[in-house]
Automatic annotation (TrEMBL):
Coiled coil: none annotated. PROSITE patterns: CNH (PS50219). It is found in: Cytoplasm. It comes from the Eukaryota. Keywords: Cytoplasm, Protein transport, Transport. Residues 410-428 have a biased composition (Pro residues). PANTHER family: CNH DOMAIN CONTAINING, TRANSFORMING GROWTH FACTOR-BETA RECEPTOR-ASSOCIATED PROTEIN 1. GO terms for biological process: autophagy; endosomal vesicle fusion; protein transport. This is CNH domain-containing protein. Residues 242-256, 269-280 have a biased composition (Low complexity). One of its GO terms (cellular component) is cytoplasm. Its main location: cytoplasm.
Amino acid sequence: MSSTTQDAHHQRPAVAAPYTLQILADSLPLDSSEEKDVKITCVEAWDGNLYIGTSSHEVVHIVAIPPTPHPGPNTSNEFTVELPTYIQGTRQKPAASAVPASQSTTKPFIKQILLLANQGRALVLSSTGLLTFYSLPEFSPAWETVKVKDIQFMVLDSNDYKNQEADNDRNAPQTEGVQVLLCGKKNVRVIKVGEDVRLIRRIDLPGTIHAARQGPISCVATETDYALLDIENSGKISLPSIVSSSESSELSNASVEIPDERRNPSPAPSSKGSSRSSTPMGTKSHPPRTSSLQRARSNDFSPRSTNSKDELKAPTPSKHARAVSTGSMRGVSPHPANGKPADGLPTRSRSTNGRSADLLSPPPSSQMPSTDSRSSSPGIKPTGDGEAEGETPTSHDEPLAPSTTSKSPSPSPANTPPKSETPPPPTDSLPDPTEKSEAVAVKPKPKEKVRLKPNIITPTATEFLITTGTGKCDPGVGIFVDINGDVTRGTINFERYPERLLLDSDGWLLSLLSQGPDNRTMIEIFKWDEDQEERGIVELPVEEDQAGVGIKDVKSEISFSVADIGKRLMFVRIIPTAQGGEQTQRNLELWEESRMDEEIQAARRISGAESRILLWNSTKIWGLVRSPPVLNLDGRLPMDFSGNAVGAKARIQAVMKVLKDVEGHQPETERHFHELAYIRQKSGMLLLAELLASSHSLDTGTVAAVESVLLEGGLDPRVVVALFPAFKKEVVEGKQGLWVYAGIKQVYDALLERDNKFSAEEADLETATLMILKRYLAAWRSKKGFGSVLDEKEVFLTVDAVLLSVLLRLDSPMTTDAMVKASSHEELYKLVDSGLDCYERAIEILEEHNRLYLLSWLYQSKKKVTEVLQTWRRILESEEGDDEFVDGEERMKEYLIARRTKELVLDYGVWLASRNPDIGFRVFADPRARIKWEPREVLDILREKAPTAYRKYLEHLVHDNKIVEYAKDLMSMYLDELLSTLENDQDTRDVLEASYLSYRALEAPKPTYRVFIEDNSSGNRWWATRLRFLDLLADETSYEVEPLLQKIRPWQKLLVAELVIIYGKESRHSEALKILCHELGDFDTAVNYCLFGAVSIFKTERTIKTKEEQSELFKLLLSEFLALEDAEVSVKQTCSLLQRFGSWLNVEDVLDAIPESWPVCLVSAFLTTSLRYLIKEKNEANIAKALSRSINLRVTADYVDKCDQLGPTIQDSEHDAFFPSLDSK
């Protein structure tokens, strides 16, 4: 049988909490040359083997081989589930009992298969009632001579946990045997299957068709009733009927013996559990009991014993027993009255003292066998052993059809008195005949006989769950009873009467419901021990033969691949936009083709699930698999992509509830990891869509919670960015492309298709949308450097680019919110300062937004000095400029002086000097500059490329740095500029001449000419240059005067102040004073000239040190004052000079110079001062002379004293007279 790929019909399972239907085998080839249209009637599975019972009365052994991956890439790029390959092992046709043609309308089929793996045996039950045995795993016949007839059902003990755990292990040690309970047409038998088959017990209870066993207690069912059966003590308690109706209830109540309690019924026993509903459909509860099963054991029965370990003795009565009430155990015969086995198994005759056992009376307590002391007689010893352990299924596998035509119903044990040779019980234990007659009198006959299949399962170790109903399409009711027959908890309601019940782990109850009027076959699923309001439905894909559906809890788990897991968790590529050239796209496509095969294989690996619950119909087999958490949680997420704000809070709460359910979960497996990641990422996308659609109506806490979920979900931010067409182009796929879960891509595609907040262009995006995106991307950016971020390079290239674009949009005039704009402006610069991974793209974005100054910040963060200067130059040269680049030239100067690259500084320094000389020259002159420049080199460069800056730099050298060697150059430059202006500008000449006239016209006292021109120059550049030139001329710096004088002489009538300084430098004081007094009329400057020399015209420094020089100059000045044309001015200035500075003048010289016509009163003050000065000088001379005499006397006296101290000397020769010897002292 070749492997086939599951088609679309099977890939979409019906999900219900918490199960999903998965195909296991599709169209198994069961037909043979003799039989056509063969269908499945029962299924078992163990250790990779399928044992299939068919409608052709065959058991087909099939070995499953897992599918092998297809070589090469997957061209469809879709997740598909491949079914395993099935190879037929054996095909057995068990023997069938002969059924008269008049009693059979259908062909025999395999009704049930029971595997005892640890015994290496399989039991096969035919619809004809014949039970045969086979060996595992090859399924060959075993004990061909052993065949048990008239069997309706077989079941294991559900409390036999040891066998249940070991039964699936092929290598487990073989146990002594496993007990199997057989329901027969005439009796109930217990056999032990081990090395051989032995009959353990036989109890006469005809008509049983279904059962479940828990230790010594079994719940059995006939076609009409349920009952509890004590296997060890052969006791029975009647339970409610299968068909619950008024007629059947009355029939059930009248069919049993009613004790005295019937007349005065006591209240019904309270439920041991909390009651959930009353008895349905108005039916009566089971009859009241006066004693429980435990009391029946202790009071009505005594222990039995056996004569030998190989013989099972029949019980021996000790005395007559009282007839039990309805609630007590009824005695049933452990074997037929004739003492012959009815099952074909060898037994020994059971007798006590040669008498037959009393089947109605309890045996003596000393003869009641215990569970450990029971032993069957030796029987057939077949060969063949099994090693695997068995399990105890909780339900049977009898299919709904095909079924044999049922015979007339066997009488109920309650209606059929057991045949026995035991004496009748005492009369005091029998019910009142009158009461019995009354009971029979009220027994009505049903108008229409309804047949329902019984259901019995064991939800706990001490409880049975049975079902009752009124019809196949009517609601059914489940009743819990304990081993005493008491109702223990509330009832369970079914939508329709269940054809089969199955109990899975964790309390999940699966009910195969009858086909209703809607022609739907489905499984209803809920937890029997919890709230039954939340129920799930799995609808079976049955197209034909809907009655032939079966369900079974098989021996071992079977592996499935759940398609919906793979379809959600498989990684697929998202293509947000075409990037790069054709070759780039082709490379991505090739990579996608090669990776898709890996992703499909990975998805198949994590899509695996195991289940032991199989369903079948026709030739198909499904598995009912526990729905993985990802499917349940995904099904709870609201998939509303309409963008409607109505109901947004409810949808957000639904998503939050799902996230809360997975909160704190730590992945334990690979699939668990992907499940959690998928749910969190999808939840984040759904919440993002809701947030963008309803951000204005949501409170701040909800918005923050949604943003936190979106971030913590771990969804690749490129997927979120790709949702916005305005930013799609920023998504960087890298060499491998952008890969996400397939379920996430479905949400992505759905969000793109709707007309919503995502579809707007960048300029049209709302501020609220941009703020959400900004916070999300900023939070993601904080993860930079984390090793857990996949495709870290591509992710942060995208994040940085989009975050930059969003902040630029928020920091634009389009943003009306001032607070948002201010905060975004600050964040924008912080982002650029921190360094952007998308450096090249960031340049393009900033250029597109014309944010040149911010672009220069980006260059600075990357230490791109040249690019920074280029950008600043663009800003300064552009007409619009940049409002952010305040004091741009000054900042450029500061940036240049901190650089070390000489060529770069020279290039941009010269440009800046030509643009703004006052700032530009300082690039070369600032002492903080990293590069030290030679002044001559700078002067040569600036003279050629930035003449104005050349002057500034030269002034800086002379005035600020006091480098006098460049003063000549500066003066020459000043003079050339002044003369050039005078020569070419008549207005300047006129203004200059007018200034002289105005100054001369001023009446005394008046300011000096320097102060006058400073006050009246009004910032004129020519006058400023002249002032600088005058300062430089008056400086003590030495320079060649003659070249300057030659240039000035043609303009000597206009450059009067300059000639004064030059004449002073050449000591031509008379000419200088003459100009000051006669041409300029600046008398105060003339006085200063006499006091301080030629430089005093614009300086206050004392350059003349002696009074004699000053006296000579004042003498010259007196002559000029006396020579003034205006006699009044002459007298006034002369008298002022004599009064202030008369001490510097000789009286005789003054008297000789003053005209004789002047009255004495004009010079009286001078004469008085002079005479006083002369007297003062005379007195000072006398005092000095006297002081000199006293000093002379003192020196003479000192000499005499010294001579006396030295004493006389003797001179031997002329030479000694001049050099006295030392000895003479």
